[in-house]
């Protein structure tokens, strides 16, 4: 079985929105057909 998105892209996995529940970033694998998901808006991050 292939690696999931969280394993392949840990730097992006934290931006997966909780609004996708019960789908988690670990459920997404290459070819999984899980095409629609919400991501957190990085542009709204506070800049130091």
Folded structure, characterized:
- 17% of the residues lie in helices and 0% in strands.
- With 48 residues, the chain is mainly alpha-helical.
- It is globular and about 30 Å long.
- The mean pLDDT is 79.
Quick recap:
This protein is an all-alpha fold and 48 residues long. It is built from two helices and no strands.
Topology (SSEs and partners):
Elements: H1 5-8, H2 10-13
Radius of gyration: 12 Å
Which quaternary structure do these chains form? single chain
By DSSP (H or I, 4+ residues per run), the number of helices equals 2
**Terminal CA distance:** 41 Å
Can you tag this structure with a few keywords?
48 residues; mainly alpha; 0% strand; single chain
């Amino acid at each position: 079985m292939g690696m999931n998105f969280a394993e392949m892209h840990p730097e992006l996995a934290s931006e997966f929105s909780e609004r996708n529940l019960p789908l988690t970033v670990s459920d997404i694998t290459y070819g999984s057909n899980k095409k629609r998901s919400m991501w957190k808006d990085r542009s709204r991050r506070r800049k130091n």
